[in-house]
Amino acid sequence: MAPVKLYYYYRSPPSRAVLLLIKYLEIEHEIIEVDLFKGQHMEDWFLEINPRHQVPVLDDNGFIITESKAILCYLANSRMPGSSLYSLTPKKRAIVDSRLYFDATTVFARVLATVKSVVFEDATEVSEKVKDDILDVLNYCNGILKESTWIAGDELSIADFAIVSTLAALFFMGINIEDYPEINRWYEQCKGLPGFDENETGAKALADVVNEKVDTETAF
């Protein structure tokens, strides 16, 4: 079987989540970099692959799938079916799904809002609303992790790959992870995942976009 192709941008949390899972599952893969900051996602060649002009995109031997959460589910189902990554038990799977949706609608949305306010709105400080939204997410995640080893229970799941890839950038933006002891414990666990160093490199690069314009050391 030919390697899967991953259309990817290293600053993108959803891209990094998929790559983390690919490495965890030891899937042979080819990375095709799509630089969002250079507008490559709007070029004709990429629009033919994904008219929604978003990364990541997975090409599994001609089967094209978009949306990072769908890709995570597909890879878990196709490469490690029935595992704790995406449990077949309805209640366990529902918790994983709820965390994936939480990442998509809240965690990632709020981190993205922070970046957009600086990149596209030329903000020179983090607004109180953005700050409150970010701290709300961190407090909520810390509360979840008081009750479980991983973000969706006591076993590693695809929700961990999604949320850790999103949250990672915040810890390069002046937020002290030690203020959130359960997140800190979980984050240390996640550091054991294959390719986590690469994930942190991308997270830091995303944070640097904000740090160049905003004094994040005092923002949070």
Unreliable stretches: none
Query: What is the class of the largest domain in the CATH system?
Result: Mainly Alpha
Structural class label: alpha+beta
Radius of gyration: 17 Å
CATH second-level architecture of the largest domain: Up-down Bundle
What share of residues is helical? 40-55%
Strand content: 5-15%
Say how many strands there are. Answer: 4
Give the mean pLDDT. Answer: 95
CA-based shape: globular
CATH topology of the largest domain: Glutathione S-transferase Yfyf (Class Pi), Chain A, domain 2
Strand arrangement, major sheet: 2-1-3-4
**Terminal Cα span:** 48 Å
**Total domains, how many?**
2
Main sheet characteristics? 4 strands, mixed
Order of helices and strands: EHEHEEHHHHHHH
How would you briefly describe this protein structure?
It comes from Culicoides sonorensis (Biting midge). By secondary structure, the chain is α+β, with helices and mostly antiparallel strands.
Q: How would the blueprint of this fold be written?
A:
Blueprint: E1 4-8, H1 13-24, E2 29-33, H2 44-47, E3 57-60, E4 63-66, H3 68-79, H4 90-119, H5 128-147, H6 158-167, H7 181-190, H8 196-211, H9 216-219
Helix pairs in contact: 1-3, 1-6, 1-8, 4-5, 4-6, 4-8, 5-7
Could you please describe the fold and organization of this structure?
With 220 residues, the chain is of the alpha+beta class. The chain folds into two domains: 4-79, 3-Layer(aba) Sandwich (Glutaredoxin), CATH 3.40.30; 90-212, Glutathione S-transferase Yfyf (Class Pi), Chain A, domain 2. 54% of the residues lie in helices and 8% in strands. The protein contains nine helices and four strands, in the order βαβαββααααααα. It has a four-stranded mixed β-sheet with strand order 2-1-3-4, with helices on one face. Strand 3 and strand 4 form a beta hairpin. The longest helix has 30 residues, at 90-119. It is globular and about 50 Å long. The relative contact order is 0.15. It catalyses: RX + glutathione = an S-substituted glutathione + a halide anion + H(+). It is an enzyme of class 2 (transferase). One of its GO terms (molecular function) is glutathione transferase activity. InterPro entries: Glutathione-S-Trfase_C-like (IPR010987), Glutathione-S-Trfase_C_sf (IPR036282), Glutathione_S-Trfase (IPR040079), Glutathione_S-Trfase_N (IPR004045), GST_C (IPR004046), Thioredoxin-like_sf (IPR036249). Residues 89-220 form the GST C-terminal domain.
